[in-house]
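User: Structure with 2-acetamido-2-deoxy-beta-D-glucopyranose, tokens only please.
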Amino acid sequence: MELRSVVRLLVLSASVFAPGVLSAFGYTSSGNNYVIDAGSANPLVFSVSKSSCDINSIKYRGTELQYSNTGTHIGSGLGSATVSVSQISGSSRYIKVTCVTSTLTHYIVVREGESIIYMATYITAEPSVGELRFIARLLPDKLPNEYPYGEVSNTSGASATVEGSDVFIVNGQTRSKFYSSTRFIDEDSHCVYGGSDLIHVCIMTPQQESSSGGPFFRDIDSNNAGDSTNLYNYMNSGHVQTEAFRMGLHGPYAMQFSRSGIPSVKNLDVSWFGEVSVTGYVPASGRGTVQGTASGVQSGMQGVVHWYNSNAQYWAKTSSSGAFTSPLMKPGTYTMVLYQTEFKIATTTVTVSAGQTTRQDIAGNFNTSRNTLFQIGEYDGQPTGFRNADKFLRMHPSDSRMDSWGPLTYTVGSSTLSDFPMAVFKSVNNPVTIKFNLASAPGAATLRIATTLSFAGSRPQATVNGWSGPVPAAPTKIDSRGVTRGAYRGYGEIYTVNIPAGTLVAGTNTITISSVSGSDGDAFLSPNFIFDAVELYTA
Ligand SMILES: *[C@@H]1O[C@H](CO)[C@@H](O)[C@H](O)[C@H]1NC(C)=O
Ligand SMILES: *[C@@H]1O[C@H](CO)[C@@H](O)[C@H](O)[C@H]1NC(C)=O
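Assistant:
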């Protein structure tokens, strides 16, 4: 009691002094809000609504950063929640706000002396909006800039939409929040920033074990929307969703406030999180590790090992010798996959036990012996090198900065990789044509078309010198826009076309590859698929 009143007095004092002079760790109750002071040298004081869990004020170094019309919250706000606050003493002092609804508990935690809001979100059901995200809605005049991508997702001043209500044209360029996305495996911190003292507000996600989609999944990170600058932690969404949503505890994750510096997740300490009683939290002592060696990764490509089951997902990069160590994993049996860059080359299983290191090697088995007649692109699970592959992550395919989509003709031996389109759209550049010379008729051969993502049932149909290959069965549908949102990672279907003997001839040959689907659509929303690699080979 006595400590509490001292704290309250200091909080009151802090608000009347200049920023940076005095800040006192503690919380107070003020009307419908809990006001939390992190007690940091660069003062961070924020208010959480007692009825909705919305953060409705964030003052950092005395400056209000919170957008006033809409709060900072989960989804579009919980609406109503049972909100409680407590101070906890452990290896540090903490303040924890707990917001409870029937299927979701959101935790907001500060550790004394840090300008960091730690969070974790526990769910027993997917939110009815079909996605689980944290969104900070901040003031664009204070924090107009975005890191690491900036302009690509600045939709302030949009003059028109290109697609839906989320891809816009600004100053003749296409912009969307989707173009701020980064692969999970590459995420460090993503931020909004601004002002003369370069205040940064950054989201960091030390692990995404309860998210879905694996190491290469990408989702919205930030967006200057004009009215507010939005900073996100997308924990799951229907944005090119390739596996079921995971329940349980998402996080911990953090929103760090800094002056001029960009914090790194490598320096974020969440080892104390077990001290604040969070439902679903599994401490390090309750976890295990997998170690091993991966082989068969094509030289020059990054090996990535991925573990997943219905409860959790993890990944690790392999060293140049193929060695890998997993993060600390929850106990259980996992599917274990090896990729070269993003191309799957092996699958096995492994069982993880608490407090133990399990040894499990994995060997790539994709590279069977064959006689390659030509190959366009690499089996890396990405459209890298093909036309517009250098641009599509950060702009719409209709953007005037894109190179012409064609239809294109690629001549083996004289064309460059950028003469081959990264995607074939049924209504835009259908088909792509490949011309090549053979010294002699090879007899029967195989055309392998590796793809990364299909939209609206699209799959490739080949013709070879006038012979029509079969129309493959429709791929598993992903109910989401794809390439127009800068996405490319789907199931990665691989199609093999068995070309009968007598079809390929000595001299000039022509193959066309068309986007085929029972569906239709306009322009870049017509059925399309994205290429990974195309190879013609004999046994
Ligand atoms: C965002 O776009 C608007 C409109 O083009 C522009 O005025 C503003 O300067 C941009 N903001 C940043 C941070 O670049
Ligand atoms: C794949 O096969 C080719 C020839 O068949 C060989 O040159 C290459 O080294 C192989 N790569 C791997 C990673 O085994």
